Amino acid sequence: LPDYPHHLIQRGNNHQLIFNTPADYRRLLEVLEEAAKKCQVAIHAYVLMSNHFHLLATPQTVQGLPQMMQSLGRSYVRYFNATQQRSGTLWEGRYKSTLIQGERYLLACMAYIDLNPVRAGLVADAADYLWSSHGHYIGRRADKLITPHPLFWELGNTPFAREAVYAELVHAGITVAQQTALTRSALSGWALGEPDFVADLQKRTARRVSPAQAGR
Would you say the pTM of this structure is higher than 0.90? Predict the structure, then answer.
């Protein structure tokens, strides 16, 4: 659905590496920026891991996200196969995604994405990982791929205030319940939010957004 934030995960086939060199990470970000702009999708957060990546994004149109991911997938696979002298698929099927309630889960989802390298044991501090949007949000660098969500702007009246609040939010981490909910919803495709929010979503689409009630 347009104008709602979505959490996406794309994995390498059979958990294989999708990045081998720094140039690979940079190439995917370049392709993502081009595809997001073309398909009218705002990228709020990302992290590129060795065999998968996460995005938090809001599309402006119904077809924005699938078109962006199709364009990104095809372009990057062509590049990767050419540089690695390989052929065939790179992805583990279609990307996983879910729509989330921004007021309840957007900042938690951003922190969840930023903390991926910490959970994987790659760095002790999210700020030390190069291939994520975290550096942009704490003032370490300017990332032209990123479009901050309005909820991020509400963290403070100045850039410094917002950066400090967000850095502390990520440093504090998220709860086990939040982590579980964000992972489960993305992998299952069920919308993540309070019951009234999910019920309202269901009125807007013919596709089921939550599991059906168990039968007899």
Answer: yes
For the stretch 172-187, pLDDT in tens is 999 999 999 999 999 9
Structure tokens belonging to residue 123: 């760095």
Q: Specify the amino acid at residue 174.
A: I
Which string of DSSP letters, residue by residue, matches 26-66? HHHHHHHHHHHHHTTEEEEEEEE-SSEEEEEEEESSTTHHH
Structural tokens at position 109:
């989802």
- Residue 164's contacts (CB-CB under 8 Å, 6 or more residues apart) are 156
Phi, psi dihedrals of residue 96, rounded to the nearest 5°: -95, 145
3-state helix, strand, coil in the chain (%, to 5): 50, 15, 35
How far is 37 from 41, CA to CA, in rounded Å? 6
Rounded to whole angstroms, the Cα distance separating 38 from 51 reads 26
Listed in sequence order, the DSSP H helices in 86-133 are 102-114, 116-119
Cβ-Cβ contacts under 8 Å for 12 (sequence gap 6 or more)? 18, 51, 52, 90, 91, 92
